[in-house]
Amino acid sequence: MDAPRHGSVTNKEFKLNRNDEEDFWMNAIKSLRNALCGGLLVMAQPLLASPDPAKVAGPDECGECHKNEVAVWRETQHQKAFYELSRKEEAQEIAERMGVKRLKKDAVCTDCHFTLKQEGGDHEAIAGVSCESCHSPAKEWLNVHNDYGGKDVKKADETKAHRQERLAKMDAAGMIRPDDLYALAANCYQCHLVINEELVNKGEHKAGSDFELVSWSQGENRHNFYRSEDGKQNVESSSERRRLMFVTGIALDLEYSLRAVAGATAKAKFAVTNAKRAATNIKKLAAVNKMVNSPELAEAIRIAEAADLKLNNGEALNAAADGVGEQTRAFLAAHDGADLAMLDKYVPGVDKYKGEPGVAQQ
User: Fold this and answer.
1) Which of 13, 74, 42, 93 is closest to 318 using CA atoms?
2) Which terminus of the chain is less hemmed in, N or C, by CB atoms within 10 Å?
3) Structural domain contains residue 173
4) Which helix (H) or strand (E) holds 142?
């Protein structure tokens, strides 16, 4: 499939025409109903690999050097949920329907809402969504991350050769660095698109949030002190990075909604909601590529469109999700964001950010 040519895209086109979308979904729901009669269903592989509690160091360890980042994190909903979630009536009702006795012990809840650490022979919830939820468990890379060339060598004095070696070791040990935008953002979508069918259909948990990568990362969750000159300013990501985040977010939303449909076993809220989400994201990605003209995005769209959004199609849908992910990484390798200024009209601005970013500690 050839990449679409450049063209103007209206806000109406980008957000999708409501009547067209409703017509599309009437057909999609019919397809899901018909597919239910197709025999045994192909189950998707589990999507969420929870951090190994034995390898978790904990946010206090990160805070030894990243004081401002951790201080800002403590005021976000990611951490406040550690104290507040179990007291919320809605959470208690979902837990009761799921047969969960303790929210901080059951994987149904801990996989997305808490950070577990091995304490003795048990796993204890020590925080909400924390540093290691996004950057991976730190025990195996923390010391390498902090070593700039010797005990008394400061970061500013690290040699180029040592830095390259240090980063390579960190990558090999499993750290997800901010430069790896795809891997970092994938952690967001694994939870903001709820992938547990029973939790949605039986527990009546929302099938997913209205998560959007730029607006949700640049508000209260922003902790970008590292890139400021004095290390004390919580700076907004560059326009180039925000453009890349915008495209990556749509692509990842598509990838994980495809994976969710692949794992669906019944024509119910989980399957229908995620099928709708996948199809909407295909249209959004196509609208983006009408402006960007990227062969990688064109291929991702072709792959996604070729996989039927129906039950009993798990193998094809998972393969399509893999293909979308591969093309997203290829897109990021081919672009630095400087060539994507045509997207600025659609990238969420400050007025769309979720909450206020925190400030440095005095």
Assistant:
1) 42
2) C
3) no
4) helix 142-146
